[in-house]
């Protein structure tokens, strides 16, 4: 039985050279000179969009001093926002796939109170060759530039950049920049530049300056580290692998200069990496931590470990991330027998529970995705039936809100009147009520309509039933198949087929599939207070749209072996 995965924050741009905004996009200067200018803090023109009339006169004076045509500033058409509509601070950006008459991605700004405003709809028609835009891995800078990915089998997955602060701005397709396609996705740096890999050339990187529509490339020896693009804190370099061992890293300047060995502090908005490229791991079944699988969270660096959180009681950690360069972390734990999740901030040994969030049984995964720079809200990313969603938690204790779609990051509402004066409506969905202990969706909701089902079984948790039991999953024999194994409970569960077995920590559902052996029974061993689901699929239907053969398998409760 083999396993394989089925799944596969940045303000600071204050202008120093306004004349660059009327310069040609194709800059003949060498990459090092372009990079040196691009990395300077900028953003004055971005801020101008939301400036008052008196500030506009100041900008006109600055433009004259820099010999920038006054018509450029005047064309911004600044209109003071209505006082009762002004949003201050930061908004979060949520992306939703829309497959209606004009398929594409709808972009929503969300205030800390949960109010949503449609900022932009980006149509699939802006990309060619049958590609479509995808919300997954979309990322936004705090000044309002959105990077979207595309998807199409065999395509180069180009990156599309959109200025959300200007409703009339034409999307910029960057064909040489790859949005991932299973590899490293694009990432914003601390100075507002975007880094991405070059399509089909993982060792080659491209830097895009969205405000000038200019790009340049530079080379690394072995590409980004760990399938992710990690910046240096000053935005001057990218961390890359050397291909010389498990801990072979170097810092490569984006201006094409010579690489320097090792890595110090890093800038990683997603919190996946810490100083020195440290990682976090949860010692759960299957991670094979040397000290045992007791649920502790460890900081791992160059083979050495440090425990940053130790499980006490029944609440288990199922996600952890870094917060900046210091010893700060976000932790997400299950709570109240899986009915809720706790969002915990760890700093210098202190543990603060920021919020308790009710968890719906359909939530396959939930984890803190980030905190707004002004500390107004925390966003938790959620996977629901393999689709993205988010829970917004205001830190002032206001009601939490649920939002379908992918969380792309935070934007400073002062960067454009679009964010400050949008028509915000109440959240379209409400947060779930706390549900059943260690709940999972009904089995039928998990079955794919386009697959042939060779067998299925499920069991719901019974609180207080601690003893382990083994159940057989009925199936059609003798064909091999793929088994989807989901579970939620206070301890792990084991799926066995023939001579092989695999253990699921029962913290995250829908994350793996297993190839089933043709011989012997298929069994699940779990405690009675654990919910689990198993679906065994045959090969996909050879004809697209063809009617699948009748579903077969367990229609009765699974057989108890002991």
Explained architecture:
- The structure is a single chain.
- This protein is mainly beta and 562 residues long.
- It has two domains: 418 residues, Methylamine Dehydrogenase, Chain H (7 Propeller); 118 residues, Sandwich (Jelly Rolls), CATH 2.60.120.
- Strands 5, 6, 7, 8, 9, 10, 11 and 12 form an eight-stranded antiparallel β-sheet that branches. It has a five-stranded antiparallel β-sheet with strand order 1-34-31-36-29, with no helix packed on it.
- Strand 24 and strand 25 form a beta hairpin.
Please describe the structure with a list of short key phrases separated by commas or semicolons.
562 residues, Jelly Rolls, disordered N terminus, 40% strand, Methylamine Dehydrogenase, Chain H, 37 strands
């Amino acid at each position: 039985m083999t396993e394989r995965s089925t799944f596969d924050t940045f303000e600071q741009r204050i202008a120093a050279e306004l004349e660059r905004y009327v310069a040609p996009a194709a800059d003949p200067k060498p990459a090092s000179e372009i990079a040196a200018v691009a990395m300077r803090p900028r953003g004055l023109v971005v801020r101008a969009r939301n400036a008052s009339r008196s500030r506009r006169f100041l900008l006109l004076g600055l433009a004259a001093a820099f010999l920038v045509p006054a018509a450029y500033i005047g064309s911004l058409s600044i209109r003071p926002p209505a006082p009762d509509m002004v949003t201050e601070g930061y908004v979060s950006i949520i992306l939703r796939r829309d497959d209606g008459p004009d398929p594409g991605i709808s972009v929503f700004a969300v205030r800390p109170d949960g109010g949503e405003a449609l900022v932009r709809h980006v149509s699939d028609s802006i990309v060619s060759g049958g590609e479509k835009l995808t919300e997954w891995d979309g990322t936004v800078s705090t000044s309002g530039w959105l990077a979207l990915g595309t998807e199409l089998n065999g395509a180069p997955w180009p990156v599309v950049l959109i200025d959300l602060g200007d409703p009339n701005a034409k999307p910029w397709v960057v064909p040489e920049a790859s949005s991932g396609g299973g590899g490293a996705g694009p990432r914003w740096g601390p100075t507002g530049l975007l880094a991405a890999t070059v399509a089909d050339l993982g060792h080659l990187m491209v830097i895009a300056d969205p405000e000038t529509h200019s790009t340049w490339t530079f080379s690394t020896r072995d590409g980004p580290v760990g399938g992710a693009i990690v910046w240096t804190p000053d935005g001057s370099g990218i961390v890359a692998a050397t291909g010389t061992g498990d801990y072979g890293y170097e810092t490569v300047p984006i201006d094409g200069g010579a690489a320097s060995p090792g890595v110090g502090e890093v800038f990683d908005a997603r919190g996946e990496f810490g100083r020195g490229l440290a990682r976090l791991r949860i010692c759960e079944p299957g991670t094979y931590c040397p000290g045992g699988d007791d649920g502790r969270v460890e900081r791992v660096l160059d083979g050495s470990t440090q425990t940053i959180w130790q499980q006490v009681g029944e609440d288990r950690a199922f996600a952890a991330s870094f917060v900046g360069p210091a010893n700060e972390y976000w932790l997400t734990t299950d709570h109240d027998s899986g009915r809720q999740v706790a969002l915990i901030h760890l700093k210098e040994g202190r543990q603060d529970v920021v919020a308790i969030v009710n968890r719906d049984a359909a939530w396959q995964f939930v984890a803190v995705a980030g905190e707004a720079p002004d500390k107004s809200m925390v966003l938790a990313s959620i996977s629901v039936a393999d689709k993205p969603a988010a829970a917004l938690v205001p830190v002032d204790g206001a009601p939490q809100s649920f939002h379908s779609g992918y969380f792309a990051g935070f934007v400073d509402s002062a960067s454009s009147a679009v964010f400050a004066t949008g028509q915000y409506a109440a959240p379209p969905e409400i947060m779930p009520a706390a549900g059943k202990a260690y709940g999972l969706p009904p089995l039928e909701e998990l079955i794919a309509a386009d697959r042939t089902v060779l067998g299925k079984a499920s069991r719901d948790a019974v609180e207080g039933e601690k003893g382990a039991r083994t159940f057989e999953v009925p199936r059609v024999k003798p064909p091999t198949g793929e088994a989807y194994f989901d579970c939620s409970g206070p301890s792990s569960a084991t799926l066995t087929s023939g001579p092989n077995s695999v253990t699921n920590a029962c913290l995250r559902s829908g994350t793996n599939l297993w190839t089933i052996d043709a011989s012997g029974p298929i069994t699940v061993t779990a405690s009675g207070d654990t919910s689990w689901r198993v679906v065994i699929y045959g090969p996909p239907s050879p004809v697209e749209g063809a009617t699948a053969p009748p579903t077969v398998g367990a229609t009765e409760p699974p057989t108890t072996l002991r």
